[in-house]
Amino acid sequence: MIDFATKLVESIGIFGAGLFIAIESVVIPLPSELVLLLSGFNVSIGEFSFFSVWTTTTLGSLAGAYLLYSIGFAVSREGIDKLVFRFGKFVGIKQRDVHAAFKWFDRYGTLVIFFGRLVPLIRSLVSIPAGLAKMNLARFSLLTAAGSGIWNALWISIGIQLGDRWRDAENWAKYLDYAVYALVVLIAIVFVTRMIRRRGASAN
């Protein structure tokens, strides 16, 4: 997978990075962290600028999210289950994963579109219930771009710091994922706490 990502980026530059991220948004087993780390390495040696690769990869995230959103928008819940049952194995999507995304969306609403972008697997699948719920496209786009932008910026920055040692991150990427999960939980707790306090203050 590293070799594939490397060849793609070397062949078509930042557009290769954006394309990989778009595909990763739909084909679950592809690790976006690898191409973002590689992109960061290219920034460190002056091949790319941070802004250009960050913009391109974030647009790639949006493109993949739009595809899954459109599927949810056009197909019923039963139809989605049938599609996943028939074709999910080809893109690494399991029915239990889709059901988990629906539960996240039902429980946390549109906020999961933002926070979910920081969580692998949920990052992609949450676009489907958003489409099914006919979520406002402008709001969906804004939250998707914001969450994906943070995720992409984080890993690109790590790639910049690692430089030519970016491949080493494959060995401990999962621990960085855990750190991101903890950060997401912390942000969510702070957000919910402030929201509760504001409601309490307005009630008084």
Give a description of the structure:
The chain is mainly alpha-helical and 204 residues long. It has helices spanning 2-12, 14-24, 32-44, 50-74, 77-91, 95-108, 111-115, 122-125, 127-132, 137-162, 173-203. The mean pLDDT is 79. The chain is built from eleven helices and no strands. Helix 1 (2-12) crosses helix 2, helix 1 packs across helix 3 and helix 4 runs antiparallel to helix 10.
What attributes does this structure have?
mainly alpha, 0% strand
List the helices and strands and how they pair.
Blueprint: H1 2-12, H2 14-24, H3 32-44, H4 50-74, H5 77-91, H6 95-108, H7 111-115, H8 122-125, H9 127-132, H10 137-162, H11 173-203
Helix pairs in contact: 1-2, 1-3, 2-3, 2-4, 3-10, 4-10
List low-confidence stretches.
none
Report the principal-axis shape.
Answer: globular
Radius of gyration, Cα only, in angstroms?
18 Å
Indicate the structural class: mainly alpha
Q: What helical percentage do the residues reach? A: over 70%
Q: What fraction of the residues are assigned to beta strands by DSSP? A: under 5%
Overall pLDDT metric: 79
Largest sheet: none
What gap, in angstroms, lies between the N and C termini? Answer: 57 Å
Order of helices and strands: HHHHHHHHHHH
What is the strand tally? 0
Number of helices: 11
Q: Into how many domains do the coordinates divide?
A: 1
Concise account of the structure shown:
By secondary structure, this protein is mainly α. The chain is built from 11 helices and no strands.
